[in-house]
Design goal:
alpha/beta
């Protein structure tokens, strides 16, 4: 297979993963947007967390909420639990790496917030514990995973599972999901700014 054929194949797999996800999870994705809009209208926040590429996605999406997505508007409350190296390393050192998210949620989470745990396998122990702590505390929980969903499949109120076994394709769908959420939340909360 030539390099150009490989490029086409990779793009095609990404498109197929997105189409397969959309076919299965349209209603759940709409619910996620609705829950986030409700939380932000009640002066709550979105808390995001994950490891590696999923940590980068958490930070990326938090930035889109806090700053702007498509147009200028008021800031939206969001935080990525992957950004504070002092907090992460102190929890890892004094307790365990598995607790880096659950401990932060205990400190920063409030009932009515939305917690989004991201893991391509759905089996990351620290993400799982973070979702469990969030649920115990009354946060609305959302899991983004891939494959069969892993242990996170039943850990959250809504699980959005990318039907692929390939980590890059799962990550590509996760960031698309995140962008859809950001765009629709922004439109719902700032319709007048959108018209400018």
């Amino acid at each position: 297979m030539s390099m150009q054929e490989r490029i086409v194949s990779i793009f095609q797999k990404s498109i197929e993963a997105k189409q397969a996800f959309l076919k299965r999870y349209m209603d759940q994705l709409e619910r996620v947007v609705t829950e986030i809009v409700k939380a932000l209208q009640r002066a709550r926040k979105v808390v995001l967390f994950g490891n590696g590429g999923s940590a980068a996605d958490a930070q990326h999406l938090a930035a889109e909420f806090v700053n702007r997505f498509l147009y200028d508007r008021g800031a939206l409350a969001a935080i990525a639990l992957t950004s504070d190296s002092s907090v992460i390393t102190s929890i890892s050192n004094d307790y365990a790496y598995d607790q880096i998210f659950s401990r932060q949620i205990e400190a920063l989470g409030k009932e009515g917030d939305v917690a989004i745990g991201i893991s391509t396998s759905g089996n990351s122990p620290n993400v799982l514990l973070g979702l469990q702590k969030a649920r115990q505390m009354g946060l609305y929980t959302i899991a983004l995973s891939g494959g069969a969903g892993g242990k996170m499949k039943t850990a959250a109120e809504i699980s959005l599972i990318v039907p692929s076994q390939e980590t890059p394709r799962i990550q590509e769908v996760h960031i698309t999901i995140g962008h859809v959420i950001c765009e629709l939340v922004e439109e719902a909360l700032f319709p007048k700014e959108r018209e400018k």
